Amino acid sequence: MLAASATATLAADLEQARAEFLSGNYDRCVSLAKTALKEGEDREDWEVLLSEALLTTGRYPEALTAITNGLAEQSWRLRLRWQARKVFQSNGQSDAAAEMLEGVIQRVSAQPRAYQDAPTLVVLSKAALLAGGDPKRVLDKILEAARKADPKLRDVYLAAGELALDKHDFDLAAKKFQEGLKQLPDDPDLHSGLAQAYEPSEPGLMMAELAAALKRNSNHVGSLLLLAERNLDAEEYGEAAKLLDRIQKVNPWQPDAWSYRAVLAHLQNQPDLEKTARETALKFWSDNPRVDHLIGHKLSQKYRFNEGAAHQRQALQFDSHYLPAKAQLAQDLLRLGEEAEGWSLAEEVQKQDGYDVAAFNLTTLHETMVKFTTLTNQEFVLRMGSHEAAVFGRRVLELLTQARSNLCAKYGLEVKRPTIVEVFPEQKDFAVRTFGMPGNPGYLGVCFGSVITANGPAAHPGHPVNWQAVLWHEFCHVVTLQLTRNKMPRWLSEGISVYEERQANPAWGQQINPRFREMILGDDLTPVSKLSAAFMAPPSEEHLQFAYYECSLVIEFLVERFGVDRLKEILRDLGDGAEINTALEKHTVPMPKLETEFAAFARGRAEAFGPGLDWEKPALLALPEKRSLGRTPKPSTANNDDVLTEWITAHPTNYYALREQAERLIEQKKFQEAKGPLTKLLDSFPHLSAPRVAYVLLASAYHELNETNSERQTLTKLAEKDDDVTDAYYRLMELGAVAQDWPAVQQNAQRYLAVNPLLASPYFLLAQASEQTRQTQTAIGAYRALLELDPPDPAEVHFRLARTLHGLGDPEARRQVLQALEEAPRYREALRLLLEINGQSPRAEIRPPAIGTEAKP
User: Fold this and answer.
1) Can you tell me the distance from the alpha carbon of 54 to that of 96, in angstroms, rounded to the nearest whole number?
2) Domain boundary, last residue among 437, 453, 483
3) Which of 722, 752, 781 corresponds to the end of one domain?
4) Which letter, b or e, does each residue of 447-462 get, where b requires 16 or more Cβ atoms within 10 Å of its Cβ?
5) Are residues 455 and 546 in the same domain?
6) Residue 10: what pLDDT?
């Protein structure tokens, strides 16, 4: 009875010590462990716990002494040997750590049945992975057996979740950590692990899990590190430093924390502090590859790819088998345009670790990309799917060349190497090339400095996007990133690119709308000094778009208030390593004054939007801002809603009332009456700034009333202000063709193709209009593109192309007319053209048939 009582007491003491550890009372845990070890009972559990608490608090030499004493007495204990491996590594004794791993593997190989308890199976799973074991077998066999043996053992779920995180399988990681939390709902390590699983895609859930972890243990180093990393990403460097201070009160030598200190110093142009921080991170383990890997990884996330790649190479010098560094180096090289080595490294990682999701995705993508078509000129290397390249590849090169000419001249940049541009027909391929993983559907394009990746038009069906605006935006990033040597905050980079979109074409880029007006005049305007944080976990897609708009408005303000030369000086200072707020204050005014002036500027823009309208928003209305032509709008409330009707009548100049009134009238097919509120709405907005919906509704009313000229005028105004209204562009092409206004047909065909270049009909209209205006090369290009799109009447397209080429004396005309006759052997006009080409009949004028007529017998 006495022995049983003593055992129970020791077990209770051990649980108490573990509870102290999990709640962050590490010194108390150390004290309890040392006392228990003096009594000499159940030494393995106590020695493992003691050394772990000492490591957590940075007492590495003391942990080494403790574990060495334990090994001297119980060297056969696998958990003790595994913990010793960790302690040896933390003290820079890599050879001794390797001996511990080898010893674990040898003992299990010699006596596999002797090591079947759950804690030892967890150790075995980790050793098997390091020895090259199959991760799926480790997960399904070893760790599952450990879970069944002891469902309450936290180490099982931590090991399974960490395995999934290492393989970049975040969904599986979340599942494993969630399973653990069902058994141990207060475990801070499990909450922190789940936060890591949520980090790439669920920032809100990540923050909730970190809060749960820190509620249980306010000294939880892993959670504090994740928060510090998040503040680094948001460029909130002061907050990041405070979190690192908290970590270093727990562990003065924590390597990850000092690695982040090095990153912070680098970003703030403090090279001496950066060097000291890195050296401190390596104080006890001088060739720890994780330190340089972590520094390089964070620098690459800040687009410092050259510096990041250098750190990964250093990590691989410390340990040539360290796969995280090799995988990150592959990504860095691909983003730097050093593709041969980058793809080779990615393939190497995938061969060494077939379960790494990111590496598998990259190698699979490479197999797809080798089939892409490459188009080049002196300035660009453009890669696209073969079909897309044949249809509109040359248009892409022309647009990029124009962007390069305009933007490089404006900002005074000489681009010294060709820019690589990759346009992907599938969104998942774009995401893998850009981020290493599928997902991130909100991104249209990304620029890394000399490499641009972009979604092609086929990648977002049903969601029109102007690809020309996207590529102009991304090439502007090429200019600003190269000017600053990639040393600029995200808000400034995005702001300049959106601003330059609008400078190139007033219809491009984010524009003010009723919701943005409301956000500016409300509480959603972010201070200039904190703008990069606006891109971190925005509450909605609308808030993200507003962040882009606000950043562009800051650039507009800076240029109007201080001039474009000041903006260029700020960029030059950033390239020399200046911090953004310092550079802004140097070339403008002190930050408090700058923020006050900008807020007033933004409010002025908002108040100038519909200045004569009443903007009170009735709670009864909730109206979307975008509509498509050809769709009858539905009222947002029932027609018999007397309260709303009275409110509308009582507010004759209210934006929402006028819009609701117009929608009701159109729904009731009272098109003549609808013109009144819609005209009133449009007259209230200066300079084509009215919301899209007002133009769409008014054009619909004119269409129903057969007032074609008014419909055309309204759609023309809409086309001038919006860059993706394909319905409007197409209707304008039809109306222009009927009126034989060929320049208008050309203009709207070009607008349409800037959104969807994979539809045949705009090319046909563009070619016809170009023939009529004698723009022969444009017509030829349109006909060639049309042939790639399987037109309904290929014979006519071949004939028209042949006739145009023959007019230039191009010998290819003969081949094209023969192809027309191959499709339609009795095509009379094609036969005449062939005779003329062969010199067997005199040249006769062959007029193009009118639109809608049949050219063949």
Assistant:
1) 19
2) 483
3) 722
4) bbbbbbbbbbbbbeee
5) no
6) 54
Element (H, E) at 446: strand 445-447
Hey, is 279 helix, strand or coil? helix
Range of the domain at 555: 498-609
- List of residues 6+ apart from 709 with CB closer than 8 A: none
Q: How many Å apart are CA 479 and CA 486, to the nearest integer?
A: 10
Do 561 and 641 share a domain, yes or no?
A: no
Joined together, the tokens standing for residue 347 give 């393939």
375 and 478 in a single domain? The answer is: yes
pLDDT of residue 44: 86
Q: What is the pTM for the complete model shown?
A: 0.88
Tens-place pLDDT, residues 511-551: 999 999 999 999 999 999 989 888 877 888 899 999 999 99
- CB atoms closer than 10 angstroms to residue 428: 16
Q: Which helix (H) or strand (E) holds 327?
A: helix 323-336
Mean pLDDT in residue range 448-466? 90
657 and 683 part of one domain: yes
Instruction: Tell me the C-alpha distance between 14 and 448, whole Å.
Output: 52
Q: Supply the DSSP symbol for 142.
A: I
Q: Within a domain: residue 104?
A: no
What pLDDT sits at residue 196?
96
At residue 58, the 3 state secondary structure works out as: coil
List, as one string, the DSSP characters of 207-258. HHHHHHHHHH-TT-HHHHHHHHHHHHHTT-HHHHHHHHHHHHHH-TT-HHHH
- Tell whether 619 and 600 lie within a shared domain: no
Residue with tokens 């040392």: 34
In Å, what is the CA distance from 749 to each residue of 450, 459, 742?
A: 31, 21, 10
Check: CB of residue 189 under 8 Å from CB of residue 222. yes
290: helix, strand or coil: helix
The CATH number given to whatever domain includes residue 666 is 1.25.40
Distance CA 82, CA 736 (A): 78
Same domain? 562 vs 657: no
Which residue type does 664 have? R
Beta-strand relationship, 373-376 and 380-384 = antiparallel
Count of beta carbons in the 10 Å neighbourhood of residue 409: 9
Interhelix angle 760-772/794-807, nearest 10 degrees: 30
CA angle 190, 194, 198 (to 5 degrees): 170
pLDDT of the residue at 555: 97
CA 414, chain centre distance (Å): 28
At a CB cut-off of 8 Å and minimum separation 6, what does 655 contact?
514, 610, 613, 614, 615, 681, 684
d(CA 771, CA 243): 67
Long-range contacts of 474-478, Cβ-Cβ distance < 8 Å, separation of 24 or more: 474/445, 474/446, 474/447, 475/400, 475/403, 475/404, 475/407, 475/419, 475/447, 476/403, 476/407, 476/500, 476/501, 477/447, 477/449, 477/452, 478/415, 478/419, 478/447, 478/449, 478/450, 478/452
Helix (H, G, I), strand (E, B) or coil at 526: coil
Domain of 456, CATH number, reads 3.40.30.160
- The total of structural domains in the chain comes to 3
Q: How many CA atoms lie within 13 A of 383 on its CB side?
A: 20
Pairing of strands 419-424, 380-384: parallel
Asked, for residue 249, whether it belongs to a domain, the answer is no
Domain membership flag for residue 709 = yes
- pLDDT of 42 > 70? The answer is no
Check whether residue 624 and residue 638 sit in a common domain.
yes
- Distance CA(234)–CA(77), nearest Å, equals 46
Q: Which tokens go with 137?
A: 């077998």
Q: Which amino acid is at 71?
A: L
Q: Same domain, yes or no, for 601 and 648?
A: no
Q: How far apart are CA 604 and CA 516, in angstroms?
A: 13
In whole angstroms, what is the distance from residue 784 CA to residue 822 CA? Answer: 17
Quote the pLDDT of residue 629: 53
How far is it, in rounded angstroms, from Cα 418 to Cα 380? 5
In a domain, 42, yes or no: no
